[in-house]
Structure formats: structure tokens, C-alpha cells
Amino acid sequence: MTDVITATGLSRAYGRGPLAVDGLDFSIRRGEIFALLGPNGAGKTTTIRLIAGLIDPTDGRVLVNGIPTTDRSHLQEIHDAVGVLPEVPGHYESLSAYRNLRFHGRLHGLSDGQIHDRARELLGSFDLWERRDERVATFSKGMKQKVALVRAMLHAPSCLVLDEPISGLDPQAAKTVRDFLIEQRRQGTTIVLSTHNLDDADRLSDRVAVIQTRLLAVDTPSALKGRLFQRSVAVRLQNGNPAVLEVARRLPFVLHASWEEPRLQVRLDHPDEDMPAVIEALVRDGYRIQYVEPVSHSLEDAYLRLIQERGALATDGGP
């Protein structure tokens, strides 16, 4: 699969302050949804701006379709390839939705006929075509977000770069936006998004990057969860109590044990080999086992563990 975006040694500082992002290396493939995850101040918005060519890196570079975003001779080509949704949409609220789109389309060299056709198609997908002549100031937050997405897609870019596209939306509006993004991916559009909503990232993304100034991990959501939690096993006990932790901790191959009634959870290096010995020790001490199962974890669980275990090694980020 072809890489649409490649970041190499990507760093950015603001003035004399610390680095907002430090030495990021990643690539984003054509037609995938790639989510940027991280706590506040981790550098997600800075990374979005760097990818979109809105700011220049202090060090390193970003390539969009093989072109450096700092190459001023190809700036229009980069802007035509990328559609941007900033965290704050920045509409001209005294103008109608359609006039906002017409202004944006003309900046990209679209004819009025092209603008009309694209606006009708895209606004129609959000049931907003009939409201195109209403002032944006009268729209709800969800409607404004949809107009901003239409604006980002108006010039038919091959890549969408979205900063918190679903933040603050009601459930119905959020589902509409999610469905829209999935459809754009199906049509081959590459989508880069930052989000604090880990359920959305898990549901939408082909791959995620966890950053905290530096890059902590890049992987598919399922692989990231598996890598961090594949060795955890839960044992449901009929007569369990906190004292069962002492039984588990006596076993040298148990890396970690926790108790949450009625389950003992253990983390093992080699579950298939070591779990029979755990069961034997529990039975020997009088515990009655109801069942044993692998522990399933969410992307949020994996993210929090990654931030806890590796984030301490990263420098605190900027904007």
C-alpha cells in the first residue's frame, strides 16, 4: 500500500520554549484512517498543523505525496491534496453556509459550477442542502462541524486532516460524522484525525499513533491491545478473597496479580505453559474455580498503560 504522508525526525518548537513534538517518525498509507492519540499538550494539534503544511517544522520533514510541505514551489499542489478541519472551524458566521463554501472553493480554483455540484453532493450527505442559504451563525455546533467537513472536502482532496472532528457533538451528529468518514475511506480518501475519544479511535481507525511529545507507539488498535495485554488471564473464584493474591504472588512466573471480586487477574510471560500451575496452586489452597478466561481490554486500557509506562520517558509537549 502506498504511503501518502511520511514524517521523518519531525520536531517543532514555539519560540524558545520546549519542543512540542520531538523526532516523530511515521508513515500513513493511502486509504487508511490514522488516529493521533495523546494527552492534552502532547503535540497532536501541532502534528496536525505540520502535516497540513500550516506551520513548518523546526527539524525533520513531512512529505505529502512525496513533496516536502516546506517546498514553496509546490505549495498549491500540497494544499490541493489536503483538506483541513481545524479544531475551531473558523467560519464566516455572518455569511450563509453556501457563501462560506463558495469563498473556500474559489481559493482552490474551482469554478462556480464545480462549487455548486460539490456543495450539493456533500451538503446533501448531511441533509443540509436545503439550509445552504441560512447564516452559519444560526447553526448548531453539530451543523457547523458538518459544514466545516464539507469545506474540507469541497476541492476533492486525496487526504483529510481533521483536528477533533467529533468533539462535542451529540450522539446522532457524531454517528453521522463517523459514517461520513467511513464512506470517505471506502472511496480511497486518506484520513488523519486527532481525538480524545478512544472509542471513536478504536471503532474508526486502521492504525493509531500514541504521542506524548515523542512517539510512544504506532500500531493497529487490536495489535496495540494485544501487545500490552496478551498475557493477562482472569480466574473467577467461587470462594475468593483478597488473600488469594498471596497465593498468586508466591509463584515466580506471575508478573502481576490483582483482585477484584470475584476475579483474580494474573499477568504471565507464558500463559499456556504457566496457567496450569496457577490453577493447581489455587486448588491446593482450597479455592474453587468457576472458569478461566483471557482478559479483554479496550483501546483506552492500552492507551493508559502506554502513557503510564512509557510516557514518563517523553518530554512534556507544547501546543
From TrEMBL:
InterPro entries, alphabetized: AAA+_ATPase, ABC_transporter-like_ATP-bd, ABC_transporter-like_CS, P-loop_NTPase
Keyword field contains Nucleotide-binding: yes
UniProt feature coiled coil, ranges: none
SUPFAM superfamilies tied to this protein: P-loop containing nucleoside triphosphate hydrolases
Pfam family, one: ABC_tran
Positions of the ABC transporter domain: 5-237
Single annotated GO MF: ATP hydrolysis activity
Keywords: ATP-binding, Nucleotide-binding, Transport
Family: Belongs to the ABC transporter superfamily.
Database matches in PANTHER family: ABC TRANSPORTER, ATP-BINDING PROTEIN
Protein name, entry field: ABC-type transport system, ATPase component
Organism of provenance: mine drainage metagenome
Lineage, top ranks: unclassified sequences, metagenomes, ecological metagenomes
